[in-house]
Design brief:
Helix content of chain B: 25-40%
Shape of chain B: globular
Radius of gyration of chain B: 23 Å
Distance between the termini of chain A: 11 Å
Oligomer: heterodimer
Order of helices and strands of chain A: HHHHHHHHHH
Shape of chain A: globular
Strand order of the largest sheet of chain B: 1-2-3-6
Structural class of chain B: alpha+beta
Largest sheet of chain B: 4 strands, antiparallel
Structural class of chain A: mainly alpha
Number of strands of chain B: 8
């Protein structure tokens, strides 16, 4: 059995707190939305920045996502997953939509060229917490191929086909590496679902 | 233990990190998941795991974002809950909110476009001497009873706002923040119809990141409006992948 609520992100209690807050948001409670914003804006923006890279575009996407949380709060169903996951799924989807259109493919090079941002590394370092450290340690526990596959797919916004092309594996291998790697991460981080 | 189809089941991980770009493959997996409790349970756990990865990438959002988002809530109507009782099959996947988001973007785009065009129009009206006729043409499109406006973000950067009227057979284009092109290249507008594709003119160079408003005539019912990057002077037919395609309605 896996221990509950010891993973990074939100402590278990906070997680349920978010579920409850989202139910209030669905009824138009703006104060509850402020709490949701304050808990999730950092991860939403950080994830989008990892995928999209361009700061101005990332801010735009983050704005759309957070407003969508307000707008669609009634569609969140706590029986199907946590509130944090509902929001992060929307954020990841929107970030990937931004970079994964047919047109965007041609512009990936340009994106890579814009890559060195630096600047707020200091702020980033401040955000680093023990929990982030734990995620990093769990990632370190994966095989190189598992870690690279997951990182490219989730933080890079690449499809598993693209990951296979980048890493030179077969589709079957990459699918399996992503799954095995995530299962290992889940167990290492003590995700309790 | 019963054997399950490995190829489908192995997709739980890719699905949880949204790495299936083939719509058909994703739908197929979602159908499979509805029958396979083991799969949906696993996807759930792996999705929660991915959320931990998101939290570990957390970074302080830009200073202005909080005010922008919080003030937008007071102007944004919320979706009603789903009370559909036709059963789970008819319901959308719980996290695919893309279609509603699109209509929301469209609504916001309309408001944005109206403001942009209003500014453009007011600005243009100052040049009374030469611009009156052009302004009247712009105003005719803007005030046409069937005029529609669309704002789209271009993935390489910038936004394009179109206002068109099929009744007036015309459209107005303004852009903001489109990347500057290398010398010898130009943005070209297109009316792409089922019978023919016609050039709708070139975008002028941008000033302070803005270009337009450009008025183009010759829009026909059923046309799709497109923008491509072409050699200076433009071409007769598009030669590159469009950076924008907007299907006209009405």
């Amino acid at each position: 059995m896996r221990p509950a609520g010891t993973g990074p992100g939100l402590p278990e209690g906070k997680d349920r707190d978010l579920d409850r807050l989202l139910a209030l948001v669905a009824r138009g409670d703006e104060e509850a939305f402020v709490s949701v914003y304050d808990q999730l804006a950092g991860p939403v923006y950080g994830l989008i920045r990892r995928v999209v890279r361009n700061p101005a575009q990332s801010e735009e996407v983050a704005q759309e996502v957070l407003l969508e949380v307000w707008r669609a709060a009634s569609r969140f169903d706590a029986s199907k997953g946590s509130a944090a996951t509902w929001v992060m799924t929307i954020a990841h989807r929107r970030a990937v939509d931004r970079v994964r259109s047919a047109v965007a493919a041609a512009e990936r090079e340009q994106r890579a060229a814009e890559l060195p941002t630096g600047g707020d590394d200091v702020a980033e370092a401040v955000e680093a917490s023990l929990e982030q450290e734990r995620v990093r340690r769990c990632l370190d526990g994966l095989t190189d191929l598992q870690r690279e596959s997951i990182t490219l797919a989730y933080y890079g916004g690449y499809s598993y086909r693209e990951v296979a092309a980048l890493l030179g594996g077969t589709l079957g291998t990459i699918k399996t590496r992503i799954r095995d790697g995530l299962i290992r991460l889940r167990d290492c981080m003590g995700v309790s679902w | 233990m019963r054997l399950f189809r490995h190829d489908v089941h192995a997709l739980t991980g890719a699905y949880a990190v949204d790495a299936i770009d083939d719509e058909l493959e994703r739908e197929k997996f979602e159908r499979h998941m509805r029958r396979c409790q083991q799969c949906s349970g696993e996807v759930r756990g792996l999705s929660e795991t991915a959320t931990k990865l998101a939290f570990s990438a957390s970074r302080p959002p830009p200073a202005g974002l909080r005010d922008t988002v919080l003030s937008a809530t007071s102007r944004t109507r919320q979706l009603p809950p789903v009370v559909d009782r036709t059963g789970p099959r008819a319901r959308a996947h719980w996290w695919t909110g893309r279609l509603p988001m699109l209509s929301y973007s469209l609504a916001m785009a309309t408001v944005g476009a109206a403001i942009v065009l209003l500014i453009a129009l007011i600005g243009a009206r100052h040049d009374l001497d030469q611009a009156r006729a052009r302004n009247e043409a712009l105003a005719a499109v803007l005030s046409a009873p069937d005029s529609r406006s669309v704002t789209q973000t271009i993935s390489s950067g910038g936004r394009v706002t179109l206002v068109y009227s099929l009744r007036k057979h015309a459209m107005i284009v303004t852009t903001r923040g489109l990347p500057a092109l290398p010398p010898g290249k130009v943005y070209q507008l297109w009316f792409i119809g089922p019978p023919t594709t016609r050039s709708a003119g070139l975008l002028p160079g941008s000033q302070a990141g803005r270009a337009g408003p450009v008025l183009s005539s010759g829009l026909a019912r059923g046309d799709t409006i497109g923008i491509t990057i072409e050699p200076a002077g433009g071409t007769r037919l598009p030669t590159t992948t469009p950076i924008l395609l907007v299907v006209t309605h009405g």
